């Protein structure tokens, strides 16, 4: 849980940092764009005055300074419109060379000038109207904050993904290490118990308790085998899902109260799925044991097997106390439990077996407090 809390804290810090960077970037860009826009307005006022001076010049006027000012504008698009609405001059208009005077270009310039007038970017000089647009540099500066936000967003997503991957990798190492160690620790006493049971069978062949002892020892051996497979990567093989469910129901019937009724709905034909039958039985057992706990030892568990065209579906439904809505997203989280006893690992282990080992899907299909819960497992054919 400490690791989970640390991951949550880091994610919050990353999101807060991203928001701060985004707000700061937008504010700084806003002030820069505003200042540059004011500066371009001043430049166009000077350019308009130079145009007016050029129009009023005679043969005795030195126009070298005026021409220098007008030629100095190489970035700001500008169109000069006369009182009749015709184009007198233009500069820095994209895709239109200053020497071209075709009718098509003239119409394009008039449309562009109308957009400038509508935006209010004009300066009146005598009978002429100087229309201008933002420079390429100003437009790039306006777009840059959104590029920065995209970069920050990508960084945050990658960072969170890396943290979650690290968390998942660490959990996998813990699962594998714990499983291998458990299988190893169980191996020696189980072998000894098996030997003792065989010796007792020879000495007391008529004893009625020995078969039950033998079943329990074999059950321990099965558990050790399951843990050893969790610690490795078991290869799925063709197996009957009908047999898996029947084995689980028989096992639960022998070890639960007579007040718990196990109901099965299985198709008449065999449903064959690629799986590790031992591990998959463990999944269904976990769901059934949780159902028994939720019903407090009294109620009905219904196992239904659907053979659909592209997948096999197993549903485990109980009549227990149900799951609260606020807990639905946490039921498969390691360590989560609503019981006074237990480690909260059963459902997380079931999810790992179904989704990582069998490439299937397990989820809570439906749950209503006081009425029960239905878990659904989907396996591809």
Largest sheet: 5 strands, mixed
Structural class: alpha+beta
In total, how many beta strands? 11
Order of helices and strands: HHEEHEEHHEHEEHEEHEE
Average pLDDT works out at 81
The assembly state of the depicted protein chains is single chain
End-to-end gap = 36 Å
Instruction: Report Rg.
Output: 39 Å
Total count of helical runs of at least 4 residues: 8
Give, in spatial order, the strands making up the sheet with the most strands: 6-8-9-11-10
What are the SSEs and their pairings?
Elements: H1 2-56, H2 64-71, E1 78-81, E2 87-91, H3 103-119, E3 122-125, E4 128-132, H4 136-203, H5 210-230, E5 237-240, H6 241-255, E6 260-265, E7 272-275, H7 277-295, E8 299-307, E9 311-318, H8 346-357, E10 361-368, E11 372-380
Parallel strand pairs: 6-8
Antiparallel strand pairs: 1-2, 1-4, 3-4, 5-7, 8-9, 9-11, 10-11
Helix pairs in contact: 1-2, 1-4, 4-5, 6-7, 7-8
Can you tell me about this structure?
By secondary structure, this protein is an alpha+beta fold. It has eight helices and eleven strands. It has helices at residues 2-56, 64-71, 103-119, 136-203, 210-230, 241-255, 277-295, 346-357; strands at 78-81, 87-91, 122-125, 128-132, 237-240, 260-265, 272-275, 299-307, 311-318, 361-368, 372-380. The strands form three sheets. The protein has a five-stranded mixed beta sheet with strand order 6-8-9-11-10. Strands 2-1-4-3 form a four-stranded antiparallel beta sheet, sandwiched between helices. It has a two-stranded antiparallel ribbon with strand order 5-7. A hairpin with a 5-residue loop joins strand 1 (78-81) and strand 2. Helix 1 (2-56) runs antiparallel to helix 4, helix 6 packs across helix 7 and helix 7 (277-295) packs antiparallel against helix 8. The longest helix has 68 residues, at 136-203.
